[in-house]
Amino acid sequence: MASQRDTSTICLFDVDGTLTAARQVIKPEMEEFLDKLKTRVAVGLVGGSDLVKIMEQMGGNKDVIIKKFDYVFAENGLVAYKDGEQIGQQNILKQCGEELLQKVINFALQYMAQLQLPCKRGTFVEFRSSMINICPVGRSCSQAERNQFVEFDTKNKIREKFVGELYKTFPDAGLQFAIGGQISIDVFPIGWDKTYCLQYVEKGGYKSIHFFGDKTQKGGNDHEIYEDNRTIGHTVTSPEDTRKQLTDLYFTD
C-alpha cells in the first residue's frame, strides 16, 4: 500500500549541483524521482539564479515549473512563488541605491581586470532584480571553459580571495558576498541569503523543513540556510548523491 503524503514535511532543494549538474538541464531520471518524491512530501526549489535560468535547468517553461512544485524560489527566495502564484519580489536597486551598487561594480571590474585566468569571456557582471552576480571568467564561457575555470579556481582560490577583498573594501556596506555555483560570486544585502525563503515556508505550517545543497561550507551560498535552526541541512555532492540520500530517507519501506 502506497504511503500517504506527509503534509507536515517539506524538502527544499538548491538547483545547481544538487538537482542538476552545474548549469545543465535536469536529467529525466531526476525529474521522475522528484515526481515520486512529491507523493511523499512537499517539494520546493531554492535557486540562486534568476527565474529564467532555473526554468531552463528544470527543463520547462515558467508556467509549468511554478505549478509543478509547492514553492519555487529564485534569487535566493527574493523572487517567490507558491502553488503557481507569485508571493514575493525584492529589489536590490531600491534597497541599496545606485551609488553603492556602482561602487561595488566598479571595484569588481577593476579587480577582475587584473586577474590572469586560463580564459576570459563575456558578461562579467549580471544585474538581477535582487542581487548582482560577479563572474571572473564571464558567464558566456563554454562548458569546457567553465570546467577549466573550476579547476583553476579550486587550486588558486580566485573567488575566495575576491570575496575577501570585497569584504575588506566594503566592510560597512551591509552587503553579503557569497560564492555561488561553479564560477561566480553573488552580492546582496545581508539577510537576503537563502534563509529569506523560510519566512514563506514557515507560513505553510511545516514541522520539518529539510534543505539539500552542495555549497553548504562557510562562504557558499547554501551555508546560511543549511545552518539555520529552522532547517535540517543535508550536504550533497551531486544529483546522484541527492537521490541516494532521499531514497534512504523516504523510499526504504
TrEMBL record:
Keywords: Cytoplasm, Isomerase, Magnesium, Metal-binding. The keyword Metal-binding applies. It comes from the Eukaryota. Alpha-D-mannose 1-phosphate binds at R23, R128, R139, R146, S184, D186. The keyword Hydrolase does not apply. The active site is at D14, D16. Its cofactor is Mg(2+). It is found in: Cytoplasm. Signal peptide: none annotated. One of its GO terms (molecular function) is phosphomannomutase activity. Its main location: cytoplasm. Mg(2+) binds at D14, D16, D214, Y226, D228, T231. It catalyses: alpha-D-mannose 1-phosphate = D-mannose 6-phosphate. CDD domains: HAD_PMM. GO terms for cellular component: cytosol. One of its GO terms (biological process) is mannose metabolic process. Its EC number is 5.4.2.8. It is an enzyme of class 5 (isomerase). Pathway: Nucleotide-sugar biosynthesis; GDP-alpha-D-mannose biosynthesis; alpha-D-mannose 1-phosphate from D-fructose 6-phosphate: step 2/2. InterPro entries: HAD-like_sf, HAD-SF_hydro_IIB, HAD_sf, PMM, PMM_cap. Homodimer. Involved in the synthesis of the GDP-mannose and dolichol-phosphate-mannose required for a number of critical mannosyl transfer reactions. This is Phosphomannomutase. It comes from Patella caerulea.
